[in-house]
């Protein structure tokens, strides 16, 4: 079953894995050393991230290195953008209200 990006990033361990490999490509063994869980459990998280396209494997000799796929993360950012614009509008309106209140206090 193919995972979607939202299912993948819902798990804190998978988000931590993404943070790690955003800095540099890592092998599954190297990733497993960073967590207090078995190599097999980390591999299951890697599988989910790979299925949704957030990471991509690259074979290098006998090792597989996983790289962060920033293009796929752009889908998540695009989804958030609709909310970001709404929040910014509301914060701008709040700034105007607060500025009006502050000006009225200064006039008194």
UniProtKB/TrEMBL annotation:
Residues 1-88 form the HTH arsR-type domain. SMART domains: HTH_ARSR. InterPro entries: ArsR-like_HTH, HTH_ArsR_DNA-bd_dom, WH-like_DNA-bd_sf, WH_DNA-bd_sf. PROSITE patterns: HTH_ARSR_2 (PS50987). Pfam families: HTH_20. One of its GO terms (molecular function) is DNA-binding transcription factor activity. This is Metalloregulator ArsR/SmtB family transcription factor. It comes from Dyadobacter chenwenxiniae. The lineage of its organism: Bacteria, Pseudomonadati, Bacteroidota, Cytophagia, Cytophagales.
